[in-house]
């Protein structure tokens, strides 16, 4: 049965129209790295477990902790009105539609503004990755207010995040997406840093320390490479943004 099992009910009344950062694995693992960093940096509370259709029926465990958990979880920081959707495994695009249907009523109940994250492949460069934002009509104005650039070309977001955004468009739910240039082959902590500093910070109105993210870039890449390889070898399409070109 599809459901969200709330573990920290006392936080529900403290959340006021929270912003949710989505962290499904995708190109460069940008969302995954950013979400994990927020949860760790703010010592966020394990708020709820997600048991939605489409989420693989597996159990995960953490280092130095014998407790089992579902692979998709929600974390909360009531002081910052912040939620994070954390996933330890890829979600198939077709399954993400079921996930969106499951999460939708909960978004509306708590008046959640979801911010979805996606990488867009770029050639290796020493330049700072470019970032832009898109959103549904009910939320896109927040991007300009936060000083986030508009897209410079026509494109699309595919994979599970694309399915979640498609659902938001179809039902008229407010939603935003941050798209950042990222390495298409390896975990990209620098792209995640750009998303946090130039996207999440101004949108949520918070300050996120990223020194650990930058200083531990090599360790983060090594820790996430197994997941990245698994996604590259899989036939399932991962989240990514890509240009459509003038003549699609």
Automatic annotation (TrEMBL):
One of its GO terms (cellular component) is proteasome complex. It comes from Haloferax volcanii (Halobacterium volcanii). The keyword Protease does not apply. Residues 226-248 are annotated as: Disordered. This is Proteasome assembly chaperone family protein. InterPro entries: Proteasome_assmbl_chaperone_2, PSMG2_sf. Signal peptide: none annotated. The lineage of its organism: Archaea, Methanobacteriati, Methanobacteriota, Stenosarchaea group, Halobacteria. Pfam families: PAC2 (PF09754).
């Amino acid at each position: 049965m599809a459901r969200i099992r709330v573990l920290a009910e006392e936080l529900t009344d403290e959340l006021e129209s929270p912003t949710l950062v989505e962290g499904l694995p995708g190109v460069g693992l940008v969302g995954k790295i950013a979400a994990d960093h927020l949860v760790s940096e703010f010592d966020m509370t394990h708020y709820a477990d997600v048991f939605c259709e489409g989420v693989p029926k597996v159990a995960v465990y953490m280092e130095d902790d014998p407790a089992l958990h579902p692979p998709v979880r929600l974390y909360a920081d009531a002081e910052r009105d912040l939620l994070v959707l954390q996933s330890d495994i890829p979600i198939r695009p077709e399954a993400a539609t079921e996930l969106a249907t499951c999460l939708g009523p909960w978004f509306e109940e708590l008046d959640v503004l979801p911010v979805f994250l996606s990488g867009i492949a770029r050639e290796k460069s020493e330049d700072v990755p470019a970032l832009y934002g898109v959103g549904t009509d009910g939320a896109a104005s927040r991007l300009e207010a936060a000083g986030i650039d508009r897209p410079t070309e026509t494109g699309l977001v595919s994979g599970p995040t694309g399915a979640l955004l498609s659902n938001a468009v179809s039902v008229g739910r407010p939603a935003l997406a941050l798209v950042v240039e990222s390495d298409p082959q390896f975990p990209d902590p620098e792209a995640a840093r750009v998303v946090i500093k130039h996207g999440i910070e101004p949108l949520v109105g918070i300050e996120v320390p990223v020194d650990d993210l930058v200083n531990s870039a090599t360790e983060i890449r090594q820790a996430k490479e197994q997941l990245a390889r698994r996604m590259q070898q899989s036939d399932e399409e991962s989240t990514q943004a890509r240009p459509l070109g003038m003549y699609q």
